[in-house]
Structures are given as C-alpha cells and as structure tokens.
Design goal:
It is a single chain. This protein is mostly beta strands and 202 residues long. Among the domains are: 70 residues, no CATH class; 70 residues. It is built from one helix and 14 strands, in the order H-E-E-E-E-E-E-E-E-E-E-E-E-E-E. The chain has a twelve-stranded antiparallel beta sheet with strand order 1-2-5-6-7-8-9-10-11-12-13-14, with no helix packed on it. Strands 3-4 form a two-stranded antiparallel sheet.
Amino acid sequence: MTRPVLFAYSLAVTTALAGMLVGRTTSPNSSAFDQITVHRINVVEPNGTVRMIISDGAEFPGLIVHNKEKTYPRPYAGMLFYNNEGTENGGLVFAGHKDSKGEVVDSGGSLSFDKYGAPGQIVQVAGVDDIHDRFAGLLVNGISEGRVQHRVWAGRDAAGMASVALMDLQGRKRIIMQVSKDGAASLAFLDEQGKVVKQITP
C-alpha cells in the first residue's frame, strides 16, 4: 500500500473502532447531567399511571386517587408514592417557616405509608417542632370499622418524655412504658376507661 492509502485505511479502522466503543457505553436514550433544577418530576408508567411525584411546595399535587386529582392543599414539598392504580399510598414530606407573627409553623418531616383501599396511614415516622406540636417518633396504626386507630407509639413528646404506648383496636392506651426527662421510669397498665390498674416503678 502507498502511504496515502495506508493512512486512509488506518483512519477508517480507528474511526470504526471508536464508534463501536462509544456505542457500547452510551445509548440514544441516555443522558447525563451534573446538575438539574426543576419544580416537579412526575414518574409514570407507559400507560400514564402516576407512580411517584417529586415536587416543590408551589407545584405540590392534591390528592390523587385512580389517577384523578382532587384539590387538597398541603404546605409541604417532598415526594409522594402511588400504587399500581395511581392512588396515593405514602410519601416523604417536609416543611417549615415563620408566619407573619414570627412564629415557626409547619416545621418538620414525615415518612408514611397508607393502607390499600382505606384512607389513613398505617405506619409513619415523623418529627415536628413548631408552635403547635413538638414530638418525634414512630406511629403504627390499624384500621378498625373503617377508622384509623393508633396501635403503637414509640417516641418523645414536647415535655421530653420518652415513651412506648400500646393501644387496643379502639385506639385506647392499655400499656405505657415511659421515662421522663429527669430519668423517672415506669410501666403502667390501663383499663378500657384509661384508668391505671397497675403501675411498676423502680
């Protein structure tokens, strides 16, 4: 081969190999970003059923049931989860700001999951610290006669009391294990009216 022909041949082979390597590492449908700024992201199935929404407060969705949205104002930003039928079944939300009086409102965050076919959360991890509430903990709920009832609480309240409470199907506290902020510990058993029938202390 002459030098010009050899050069052209080498260039063609190199270009072809480079094209093959690039084709293996990328695809026409892939994109890479170092940073993306958006107000809302909707994740949907091929048929359009919503499965997850990540949103700021301004674009935060209302209540979506079977892919249909109803007005339901919520002062949050965050991420909402939806089941296979496009119905909300949980989310991770957070907020917090000072109102016109300078008081902290809507401050905190919550991760929750809902029961299928019934309104209400069956499990929630939440932390709230504002003018209205100060608590943090894990709440497990049950559904009795179509109503959400608290069954298990483990956390602390505004007074610094750490407690574990077990409730019956009607949401009535029956066992409370707690430790106050000064270290006093107790275990109490309650009847259906909420009266302590037995208490154990150190």
